[in-house]
Amino acid sequence: ALDIRDLRTKTGCITYDESYGNTGSCQSRITFIDGEKGILRYRGIPIEELAEGSTFVQAAYLIIFGKLPTETERLRFSGLLTKYQMIHEDMKFHFEGFPSSAHPMAILSAMINAAGCFLPELNTEYDAERFEIQAAHLLSQVRTLAAYAFRKSRGLPSIYPKKKYMFTENFLHMMFSEPDEDYELDPAVVDALDLIFLLHADHEQNCSTATVRMVASSKANLFASASAGVCALWGPLHGGANQAVIEMLKEIRADKDDGTLFLDKVKHKNHGAKLMGFGHRVYKNYDPRARIIKRKCDELLSKMGISDPLLDIAKKLEETALNDPYFIERRLYPNVDFYSGIIMRAIGIPTEMFTVIFAIGRMPGWIANYREVAEAGDSRIYRPRQIYQGPSLNHYVPLFER
Ligand code: ACO
Hints:
Layout: H1 4-8, E1 31-34, E2 39-42, E3 45-46, H2 47-53, H3 56-65, H4 71-83, H5 91-97, H6 104-117, H7 131-153, H8 167-176, H9 187-199, H10 207-216, H11 222-234, H12 241-254, H13 260-267, H14 288-304, H15 309-322, H16 325-330, H17 337-347, H18 354-375
Antiparallel strand pairs: 1-2, 2-3
Helix pairs in contact: 3-9, 3-18, 4-7, 6-7, 6-11, 7-8, 7-18, 8-9, 9-14, 9-17, 9-18, 10-11, 10-18, 11-18, 12-15, 12-17, 14-17
The structure holds acetyl coenzyme *A (ACO).
């Protein structure tokens, strides 16, 4: 077998792999993807089976701890999530400092780091014995912070989590309840949002997870590493695509286009136009998560009696694109972000919160990847090389001579 340590001492040869398209940056046991066949498995279990049988919290446990929880483990972990769901009361002052125009992703990344400061006993280097407690704090509190960020952006008072609610129920409660009236939880809505969290829970070395591992490799703490993940996720080419998809669909509708004119712009790369929610670095086939989400989208909207014109445009775009040589040649298919926004719109989640929902869902993956880096006792700090293209030698010129 290859001994990686042998390679560490050899220097002088650098492989150039733009954007790391073919670079295996780590060894991992968490998530398997076969992009050619459109396969995704968490700890070996197909995503379709998890979507059918598991809750988000059980899938989170599987991803973080490597196995599905027994009933005792599930109860203990759920108990920890409930126990640690409140954030420190003084964190309200931090929320107050943000302007109401602040994007909730900016608030979320700052507040995850701030939450760590309020937990000094946990905001330390990796500690195997206390890791379950650390993980439960982060997973539970990110949901509270996300809901508070939304309420802040609307100038609304924050709503405390309640012990009687499960993970996803509590999030909806903190988002939509009023101080004197609880939000009416619809099991179909809870189930759909829980599924969205589960489908986003991990996806191997994507931009944000690779960022978390990069930061973790410097032995930064879990909260700092996760906060960096939020920043990386924010961009429209990554997690921000779910927001960009809805904005694109709205624009197409406002132009009274059925998608034909827009796809023409995309194919001619007019001002860099892209069909958002399509294409993937790894999947060269239909993203299995998109298939599950599309089905759930139809099911939820019909249960809620909603007819969303954006869904009709999205379906038309998909049908046209999948039969168009531009998309066929480049093997571009819908990804997880193509239909998820339509479900979130139906639930009443505002567009600027879509990527925040993704971040809550992705937290188990970031936590598991952080743990993998921290537990690999002999792992070295991540440090890619570059192909230098600047001048080989220049000399300093004093200011008065320039
Ligand atoms: N619309 C139109 N053309 C596209 C799209 C798209 N969505 N995606 C890729 N292409 C084209 C590229 O322009 C390129 O064309 P060319 O051969 O003429 O130069 C070709 O397909 C290959 O694409 P790359 O840019 O090399 O693909 P890469 O792997 O670098 O990018 C990415 C993947 C970022 C996801 C890209 O497909 C994209 O921008 N998609 C839209 C944004 C999006 O949906 N992001 C979410 C991804 S999933 C996630 O992060 C959860």
